[in-house]
Every structure is written in structure tokens, then in C-alpha cells.
Design goal:
400 residues, Lambda Exonuclease, Chain A, 2 domains, six-stranded mixed sheet, 10 strands, binds iron/sulfur cluster
């Protein structure tokens, strides 16, 4: 039975290749941990301790809490922790976490805004009985406010604050909302609460039943795309800097390998030589294309000025061909409907309409339709892989 979580699906959407490395191929790697994830984990553990103590009728003092945080920071710190951002040390990150906890404590003390009924609550459920995958996740803190009212709290230690609309569209807590409704039938009113701890900001949102049904459909079709993917191509983004698989990723392995070469070795490396030759050819072609267009324009100008349709050259004659073109209303044009009705009424529709193969191809690749229809289409879909070079200009010396 396949298991999916929102973070697993987010990984796929950010980069299918990273998804394949992490969840399918699992190559042995030297394990690194990002400092941001390390700090986030320690802050989560500290808030978990806070609410565990509160459950046992004990509110720890701020000093006790900071002592706990600093203690687990020191105990868990290891030399495989990776700091990507230049100019910052682990101490900077430790201090950010401590400040976040301090502000949270001051903001919510004495913590009497409801009953915390679960910490790190595992959620695991199917959208429906026939579903062949299970969704799962963990709720940081689940609160009961009485009369069927619940709150799902999530702690974030991200250094960026999303725009407000993000909270009305976020899938993670909405998915927990769906799961909670299945697991707690008395849950009539569920509020989603995000704590952006670094900014001491709280955001709230709710989902309607229609929105939750839409989310389930969206996730099911995304899982269809994941399960239909046979390529798992890399998708380059800023996140590559934090990716555990960068050294073995096909999008980066040649760049990483050649970065360590001397300037001489770099110039002589076969791949580098091929790219440099290809760039020179493309630049020449572009220059020629621009010159070709310029000369074409001059020939048209000449033919009009001299009122001639055939211009003599040494080995060729340029025939100035005049095409009479015609256009019909585009799909956005209000007259388009009228045109289509005319064609149908005149019985010419079958002759003039045809299957929109590019729309069909794009829908098939995105697995846009129900699986039954997709399975029937599969018989006609001929898979073809083509590879072509597409040049991108380097932005910095790092990519040399
Ligand atoms: S390095 Fe970038 S492109 Fe490669 S797997 Fe990681 S995220 Fe994807």
C-alpha cells in the first residue's frame, strides 16, 4: 500500500529527480543535515516539552525551557551539519531558535487558550475505501476548544513569511483537517493555525467541505502523475543548494566535477570542449539569421521601390512571392461561437474539426483525467524520448 504525505508530494513537485532519489532509489550518501532543519527540530522538541509539562499541570519557567533547548542543541549537534548561507555560524541559528521560543512563551503564557489533546499526533487515512494509497502526516499540536471545535496547530521556523493567501491554499494542514474529520466524527469546526515562530506571527484559516473535496481530487490526480512518471527528470531551482543529492544529480554532476579542475584541465575536458564549440556554432547561426532577415527586408523594400517581382543575382533570381493570407476569429473572439454554429449548421463540422492532439498529449502527460480513461488512452500513446541541448548562460562564477 503506497503511503503519501504532503511533504513527499511537495518534493515531487519541487523536483521529480529528488523524489526518485529520496523515496525510490535511496542511494547511499554521506549524510548531511541542514542547519535550518536541525534548528527547526530542536524548536519543535522544546515546544513539545512545554505542552507535555502543561498536560502534567506544570508550566516550566522560561529559563527551564531555554535550558532544555540549549541542552538538546548541544547533545544533538554533529559535524555533518551543513550551513549553506555564507557568513553565518551555528550560533546564529541557535540564537534564532531561542528567540523564537522566548517570543512564543511571552505571547501565549499562561497557555490557557484551550486543551492540547495531542502532540505530534500521527494522522493516517484513505480518501475513500477503494483508494489504493494512504495519506499520512503528523499534527504538531491538536487542541480541543469544546463543542466539537478543534484547532490544528503547526510550528514553522522558516525565515520567510508567506503571503496571506498562502494560508487559504496550504495543503498540509488542510489535509490534516480532512484526516481529522474522518478520525474524530464529532469535529464540526476545525480551525487551522500556523505559528511563524521566527516572526512571532500567527495565521488562521478554515476550509469548507467543498474545498476539502477539491483538495482530495487534486492530491489523487497528483499521485496519478507521480505514479505514471517513468523519467523523474531534475528540476533546477534555488533549492538545489540544500539538496542532499546534488553531488550525484545528473543536472549538477558534470558542473561539480569540472569545478575542481585547473583552468587548463577545464578547457581540455571533453564535455567543456563540446559545449564551447556548440556555443560558437549557435552564436554564428544567430548572427546569420539576423543578417538573413535584414537582407530579406531590404529585398522587399527594393522590389516595392523598383516595382519588380524578380530580382536578378549572379547565380540565382529572387522571386518576390506574394501570399494572400486569411484569418478567422480566435477562440477568445465573441464571433467564434457564431462561426462554429455556421459550420455545424452547414453540416461541415466533421470535415473541418479534428482531434486536438496537443491538448490530448498535454492532458495525458499531466494525467489530467480519471484513471479508467487514462488506461484506455494508454493503448494509443507511443512513448518517445528525445534529448537536445538547450543553452543557458551562467549567472555566476560558481557555475563555471
Ligand atoms: S540537485 Fe536540484 S535538480 Fe538535482 S535532485 Fe536535487 S533539487 Fe533536483
Amino acid at each position: 500500500m503506497a503511503l503519501y504525505s504532503i511533504s513527499k508530494l511537495n518534493t515531487y513537485e519541487n523536483c521529480p529527480r529528488q523524489y526518485a532519489f529520496r523515496y525510490i532509489e535511496k542511494p547511499p550518501l554521506e549524510e548531511f543535515e541542514g542547519i535550518e532543519a536541525f534548528m527547526g527540530l530542536r524548536v519543535h522538541e522544546t515546544l513539545e516539552k512545554l505542552y507535555k509539562d502543561i498536560k502534567l499541570c506544570k508550566i516550566p519557567s522560561p529559563d527551564e525551557l531555554f535550558g532544555f533547548y540549549n541542552d538538546i542543541w548541544a547533545k544533538n549537534y554533529h559535524d555533518k551539519i551543513h550551513i549553506v548561507k555564507q557568513g553565518y555560524t551555528s550560533e546564529n541559528y541557535r540564537a534564532v531558535g531561542e528567540k523564537a521560543i522566548r517570543e512564543y512563551y511571552a505571547h501565549y503564557h499562561p497557555f490557557e487558550d484551550g486543551k492540547s489533546i495531542g502532540l505530534e499526533v500521527p494522522i493516517s487515512f484513505k480518501f475513500d475505501e477503494g483508494s489504493d494509497f494512504t495519506m499520512r502526516g503528523f499534527i504538531d499540536r491538536l487542541m480541543y476548544k469544546g463543542d466539537g471545535r478543534y484547532e490544528i496547530h503547526d510550528y514553522k521556523t522558516s525565515g520567510t513569511l508567506p503571503l496571506h493567501k498562502h494560508f487559504d491554499e496550504d495543503r498540509q494542514l488542510a489535509l490534516y483537517n480532512l484526516g481529522l474529520k474522518k478520525l474524530y466524527p464529532d469535529a464540526e469546526d476545525i480551525e487551522l493555525v500556523w505559528h511563524y515562530l521566527v516572526f512571532d506571527k500567527e495565521f488562521r484559516s478554515r476550509r469548507t467541505n467543498e474545498q476539502l473535496a477539491g483538495l482530495a481530487d487534486q492530491i489523487s490526480s497528483l499521485i496519478g502523475v507521480v505514479e505514471g512518471d517513468r523519467e523523474f527528470n531534475p528540476s533546477i531551482s534555488n533549492l538545489c543548494e540544500w539538496c542532499d543529492y546534488k553531488s550525484i544529480c545528473p543536472a549538477w554532476n558534470h558542473i561539480t566535477k569540472t569545478e575542481s579542475l585547473s583552468p587548463r584541465e577545464f578547457k581540455d575536458e571533453d564535455g567543456v570542449k563540446l559545449v564551447d564549440t556548440y556555443v560558437r556554432i549557435c552564436e554564428r547561426q544567430n548572427l546569420l539569421k539576423a543578417r538573413e532577415q535584414r537582407v530579406k527586408d531590404l529585398l522587399i523594400e527594393y522590389s516595392l521601390k523598383k516595382n519588380t517581382t524578380r530580382i536578378n543575382g549572379t547565380t540565382h533570381i529572387a522571386n518576390m512571392v506574394r501570399d494572400q493570407d486569411v484569418t478567422f476569429p480566435s477562440p477568445e473572439n465573441p464571433e467564434r461561437g457564431e462561426l462554429e454554429s455556421l459550420i455545424r449548421n452547414e453540416g461541415k463540422w466533421d470535415e473541418l474539426s479534428q482531434l486536438a492532439t496537443s491538448t490530448l498529449k498535454s492532458g495525458y502527460k499531466k494525467r489530467k483525467w480519471p484513471s479508467e480513461f487514462m488506461a484506455k488512452l494508454q493503448r494509443f500513446a507511443i512513448g518517445k524520448v528525445s534529448i537536445r541541448p538547450r543553452l543557458t548562460r551562467k549567472r555566476s562564477d560558481n557555475e563555471r
